[in-house]
Amino acid sequence: MSLMSARVASTVARRLPNAATQASKVAVPAVAVASRKLHLSSTQRAVEISTILEERILGAAPKADLEETGRVLSIGDGIARVYGLKNIQAEEMVEFSSGLKGDIVKRTGAIVDVPVGEQLLGRVVDALGNAIDGKGAIDTKSRMRVGVKAPGIIPRVSVREPMQTGAINYTIIVSATASDAAPLQYLAPYSGCAMGEFFRDNGKHALIIYDDLSKQAVAYRQMSLLLRRPPGREAYPGDVSDKMGGGSLTALPVIETQAGDVSAYIPTNVISITDGQIFLETELFYKGIRPAINVGLSVSRVAIIYCGVRGHLDKLDPSKITAFEKEFTQHIKTSHQALLNTIAKDGQITPESDASLKKIVTDFISTFQA
User: Fold this and answer.
1) What is the 8-class DSSP label of residue 70?
2) Which residues are catalytic?
3) Taking phi first (over 0 means left), then psi (-120 to 50 degrees means alpha), and beta for anything else, what does residue 18 get?
4) Based on the domain organization, do 79 and 185 belong to the same domain?
5) What's the pTM value of the predicted model, to 2 decimals?
């Protein structure tokens, strides 16, 4: 038994080196693979850390925000002369740091616009649409650009119905007083027109009263002189009774005449774009005639427009239309005042009134041509 055990032990001893050698041959590749995997994971981790650091460095770097700026050369009377804004747009808003000479002026990229909407009804705002009535800010997000080109003749519809006016709850007051700068007085009518165009474009009827355009003309002349430019003839866009999309914007401009001269430059320009005028005289007021309306110079061209729209003037010599207008207006005022009162009372031209007008026009044209 002991001899057998010794032989087994010697045999095991002889085979141990071989087994160890084989074990070492198997273990060495395993260690090499493990070290290779460790090396690869370390490399990947370094790349990952480098990528994260690069992203954070780039993210921390401030982005370049280029702004076009200029400098104030001079400022006074509401006019600022600025140098350096080469790409500035017409009527673009700019940002002043304090409005002093030498200060930086930045472009905003925004054209002059004003707030519009139902929220402005019953409020008093300045030429830029800012509330000045002490009732807080105006809660509206809708804005419209100022100075939008007026619709042309083709999309408009002729005057055919009177307009019922409202009170302060349906009124927007755009205030640019004599103490305001000339640019604000010049801008105020355009701002009011833009606010009225909002209602027109949404199918509603609006009335805008310019009180008064002669003051705007003076402000424009003042701006032209300050800018050293000759005041040119730039008539205000004719937004009188233009209708688009079911809405309308009716203008009622007020003009102050000098010494009662209605043939002056400003009155004749306004008369040319309206459908009539009511001329008030101070002398009549002091004589107790109130309202102090000069009935000779106050005319309405609505009647003649009715004749033209209905085709009654198609066969009339164009050179005689002016004389026809004068005589027909006088005729309908003196002989058919009851019909005019009926139309004013009804608020529209009913089929009965239309038939009566048609007969009056037909009879008068036959008499006029004869």
Assistant:
1) E
2) 301
3) alpha
4) no
5) 0.53
